[in-house]
UniProtKB/TrEMBL annotation:
Family the UniProt entry places it in: Belongs to the universal stress protein A family.
UniProt source species: Sinomonas halotolerans
Gene3D superfamilies: HUPs (3.40.50.620)
InterPro entries reported for this sequence: Rossmann-like_a/b/a_fold (IPR014729), Universal_stress_UspA (IPR006015), UspA (IPR006016)
Protein name, as recorded: Universal stress protein
All residue ranges annotated as the UspA domain in the record: 1-138
Amino acid sequence: MTGPIIVGVDGSVTAGKAAEAARDLAVALRAPLHVVCAFEGNRTEVVGSGSDTWIHSDADTALGIAKNAAAKLAAPGLTTTYAAGRGRPADALIAEAELHSARMIVVGNRRMQGLGRVLGSVANAVAHAAPCDVYIVKTVD
């Protein structure tokens, strides 16, 4: 497979750990890295001041998070892209993986223990439905 490595971010420390592991894998495999932040809502806020108007949405916020994470993950020789994906985190990661013919999806192990394991986790949902390999990073004990 020659597609990118997909990693999801949400601004949390644990997602940052998974993203760093994804970067290291991408560098080692000489694969591109695609950073995704999911958003579920459709909220849009219009703010105006005088003749100036700004439109801010959940998609804008998610795209900003992905862009900032991608910038922090920059490494020599690594091609990094970013996107905001609509839907629940697992669904957004799977959709991006399908869209880009991904080599691998990297996720953290948050919510894979205790009650979170029963209720479900992003890693669990991705592992069951991914169109490619899934690498689960130990981000929490």
